[in-house]
């Protein structure tokens, strides 16, 4: 049988509690503070005698009392520990972050463990709250997630225009076509290219050509909805996928875009470069075999617009 702790053992345990680099708070069943170690004192600025027997929620009014009391009650009734991690809640109590490496965050990220403490009659009379500073771990993970997100964004973005690259918008188109096949949803595709673009490159140089492409892309971005996907097909050719849009809606969009581009002038080295586009429109009202055929329809309409004199909109299947 284990001998009970004598005074010296208890004193040594308290020294350990005071020196460890985690927060230790012991609460009674009424959530009053009975033990408060040096970690808590250093980060809160409040000595133990100031918080002794005060309500935890008076000392930390930012704590969600209903949620935390429910947590404590669960630990008390079940007699088993409970945990929270920073990914669920960034912190239990709001402490400032003083770590120089992760100083860009103003608060400490925390993991928390709640441990039931039993009296000699096995009744849970107190709960120990242990607070771990995991700010560095949290910041590193968030930075890694942000970096991965940026890499993913770059992998699907055309660098010159900021629009979706061909691989990404074709994948979006494939998924939209699958949605159409299953639910008979409507979608339209607008394909267009810049008229006489070779003349721009030959007459003004490739930097001017890039500037024209970027100017057109900026107008496209201003016209599309959040649900639309605008992408660069290749060279001076572009595509815009319009979900839940019929051919008439797509034709209106294409005509507005055509007029906006025609009203635009690109300035390069003191010279003004006029720009127009030709556009082809197709929708999924007719039977199709796959999403590639959808692209062929819009491209066929685009070819008709170019053959018809350029700077115009043509609809696939229209006379």
From TrEMBL:
InterPro entries linked: Diguanylate_Cyclase, GGDEF_dom, Nucleotide_cyclase, PAS, PAS-like_dom_sf, PAS_fold, Rev_trsase/Diguanyl_cyclase
SUPFAM superfamilies (alphabetical): Nucleotide cyclase, PYP-like sensor domain (PAS domain)
Top EC class of this enzyme: transferase
Family annotation (Pfam families): GGDEF, PAS
Enzyme Commission number(s): 2.7.7.65
Enzymatic reactions: 2 GTP = 3',3'-c-di-GMP + 2 diphosphate
Residues of the GGDEF domain: 185-318
Domain of life: Bacteria
Stored NCBIfam families: GGDEF
Record-given protein name: diguanylate cyclase
